[in-house]
Amino acid sequence: xxxxxxxxxxSWCNAKCxxxxxxxxxxxxxxxxxxxxxxxxxxIDVIERLETLGxxxxxxxxxxxxxxxxxxxxxxxxxxxxxxxxxxxxxxSTNASVLPSFEEGTNxxxxxxxxxxxxxxxxxxxxxxxHGFRFDRIKKNIIGLITNFRNSxxxxxxxxxxxxxxxxxxxxxxxxxxxxENHIDFYPYYAILYEWKYVWEYLSDTLSYDLLKKASEELFxxxxxxxxxxxxxxxxxxxxxxxxxxVDCDLKTxxxxxxxxxxxxxxxxxxxxxxxxxxxxxxxxICKKCQTKGMDYYxxxxxxxNLHSSTAGQSENGHTHKDLLKLIRGSxxxxxxxxxxxxxxxxxxxxxxxxxxxxxxxxxxxxxxxxKQISGVNVIAPWDILNQCTDPLVIxxxxxxxxxxxxxxxxxxxxxxYFPLEVYIQQ
Length: 427
Ligand code: SF4
What we know:
alpha/beta, Rossmann fold, six-stranded mixed sheet, 15 strands, globular, binds iron/sulfur cluster
């Protein structure tokens, strides 16, 4: 059961990010935008196919993006209406250059789980060097987008993902203030060396001098080996928990491999059975190569920039880690469950163990983690929490905290708290 299924409704993007391989009009002499978007009919065929394969379920989120800009697909409203008719949840990621307008006063966006807005800096200079858009217009678009979405039934998380480059590091606090003013969660992540083959070449010392020079001027290359050195042997690539379908209905191995490059796809969604998909998803040679170098950790777990004033991941009541310890120590008899057996969860276990607090279970949506032991803690499925525990106290240790909060609440569990992000950053 995949929790996220990415469907590339547009494979092209109007931004000019120098490190991204998405199709851009300038890449082709006879660029045809229509060939680079998925038609509504094809989208319906894909959803029906997923249904036939038994891969759709109540909690799945359809990511209407892969690497292209979804609002360049003019059928976006009809695609959303179709998903609504199937009661499916979905998510959108945009550069905010195109402003779609949904009918206000309706609930058309009530199934939108989260909205991601990517931002490459907070000045015209930064936009000139990365996205290539007019910065003032983007700010207006973001405000308009949030207003229109909220008035059209969107109640999920709005996230501003700020890509930290060397050139924009001093603009982070202005971007955060803008996000705060507009009630958008703010996540600053280091921009990565975006493309599987470049990371492979970097780690093999074969990246060309020109690329290495360019990367060393723009990115934080020191993060690559530092991040990989923290990878545990039992780490499971985050992408393997997702199904990725491109604009041509091919199943993509990885977001970081360019179409046409070795290992890009393992077949078409229309030609493989569910069993074949599940098996092939986790047995690709390129993934094995990737894992031997620990690249999967760098490519699938973006590194959060340490912004001390960040509030993301804190409890709605703004509790600190000291409050959380007090709460756990006062919860005699309750079983401690950490929801999210990823990096955040591992750090939370270490932090709690250092405080002489034991963790009873991890819980996680990933079928690749359920039934395993991570950091010496058994991982159970969310629907098993109430079977295994009489009085669980669940602490969310994942960045997607609000979505998980809703999921746990729907299970009927009342003691649910967030693990403060400050601990994650400082560990
Ligand atoms: S293991 Fe590597 S190649 Fe495979 S999906 Fe993860 S990051 Fe991509």
